[in-house]
Every structure is written in structure tokens, then in C-alpha cells.
Amino acid sequence: MGPDQFEFPEFYSFPPFFTIQPVLSTREKQMALWRELILRYHTSLKIKTLVVHDCPLWNNAKISRSLNNDDIAQVMKDFVESGHGEWQDSKQTRCRILWRKPEQLATDIYEWAAANGYINSVCTVYELHSGEDVNGMSFQGADEELLRRALGILQDQGKCTIFKGETSSEDGIKFF
Q: 13 in helix, strand or coil?
């Protein structure tokens, strides 16, 4: 699915969406819509990094509207503070998209393990990331670092143990 195949929500064609609103309650709703749009767009297209200066979301040519640089910075600040993104560089030009927060991903992984008979069994990081059993799951194709953070949360909760394999994708996870 390419960017031209993404179905933009109705609010994306509303001109005031591209002007940061001065009234706090309205701006909070607007920022929530921007978070939703950024997440939905990047998740559906399986894009793991938002390159700020090259993101097509900031411009809607159909209605001749775009966010200015200050407004983009405000949207991105809110996005990162919400826990859905992490800056990858000090100049804040690249943002890792957290399709799901690590805590949400940990819950999803454990529910998947329980539902698919992996409790007291072993699987690999590769199987969690790309295996046949994970088709359609929230963690399928997730950034490996994010996946490992979610597994670390499960390990801290005593719900799994992670052990080293020959390569990082062969690292094993035993669920309890």
C-alpha cells in the first residue's frame, strides 16, 4: 500500500485543521487528531520513522493548506510527549513511530502467547516479528528495538525469560 492508497480521514480536508487553534480545549482535540493521523498513516503503511521535513501529512494540496514549521514542531512535540514517538537525533529531524507503546505491545505479545499455546514454550524474536503465527498482530513487523523493550517489560513482570541465540533474531523467549 503506497501513500496514494492511504484513506485520509474526513478531518484532514477541514482547512482549520492546518492552523493550530488558540483555544486550549480545541487545540487539545486538534492535537489528538494529529496523533491519530500520524499513527494511522505510519501504521497502515508500515513506516517506522517519520522524517519531519519530508512528511506528506503536513501538506494537503487538495485544499491548498499546510502546516508551517512552527506548527509542525508543536504537533511533533505533542506526539513525542504523548509517548507515541521518540526522537532519533538531537536535531529532532527523525522520529521513531511507536505503533503501540511498549507497555501495550507487551500486553499484546503476552495475550498472543497465551492464546496460541506459547506459555511454557519457546519462540524466537524472529517468530514474534515475522512468523506465520503473528499475521495481523499489532507487533508483526514492529521495530526490533521496540519489540525487545516490550519483551523486557514482560521479563521484569516475570512473564518471560529471554535467552541469547546465535544471532539477535534467533534469541529465544520462554513465556510463563
A: helix
151-160: Cβ within 8 A, 24+ apart? 151/106, 151/109, 151/125, 153/102, 153/103, 153/106, 154/106, 154/109, 154/110, 157/106, 159/110, 160/110, 160/113
Nearest to 160 by CA among 142, 176, 138: 176
pTM: 0.77
Which cell numbers hold the place of 156? 521484569
Strands 85-87 and 94-97, by their bridges, are antiparallel
pLDDT at 3 over 70: no
Number of other residues whose CB lies within 10 A of the CB of residue 10: 6
